[in-house]
Amino acid sequence: MEFFSMRLETLLVALLFPSFAVAATDAPVEKAALRAKIMEETRLIAIMDLDRSSVTFKDDGDPTTLEVVFLSKRSDGPSRVSADGEIVFLYKASDHLQSELIDRAFDLRVAREIGGR
Predict the structure, then answer these.
(1) Which terms are listed as keywords in the entry (predicted)?
(2) CA-to-CA distance for 27 and 109, rounded, in angstroms?
């Protein structure tokens, strides 16, 4: 009887392993598809000449927008992404840094979407 249970366990692992392998390979594809969907649905809003501190700036509350705030004063802080990925603050950022920060904002949005499932 013990021999049979070992074989059954081995059979179950063999039967389940391919589904784990498929699930593992589907995850990046699903993540990429979700990222593309979010990028397509997101509207970019540029805000120039912020009239208040970047610390007190609040996003518009719309998850389908990405607000890019161009900072004119060094005292407003460095270029960065808000923790929720809703705002990208840019202070004299190179094109490369701008691209990296916008990518980071979308990474945060994808992670939030996956986490909310």
Answers:
(1) Signal
(2) 16
pLDDT, tens digit, 9 for 90 and up, residues 21-71 = 444 445 777 889 999 999 999 999 999 978 788 888 888 999 899 999 999
- d(C-alpha 91, C-alpha 74), whole Å: 7
Q: Going along 41-100, which residue ranges are E strands?
A: 43-47, 65-70, 80-81, 87-90
* Token digits of residue 103: 């990518």
- Asked if residues 102 and 82 have their Cβ atoms less than 8 Å apart, the reply is no
Domain-wise residue ranges, the chain: 44-115
Distance separating alpha carbons of residues 69 and 79, to the nearest angstrom = 9
Count of residues in the chain: 117
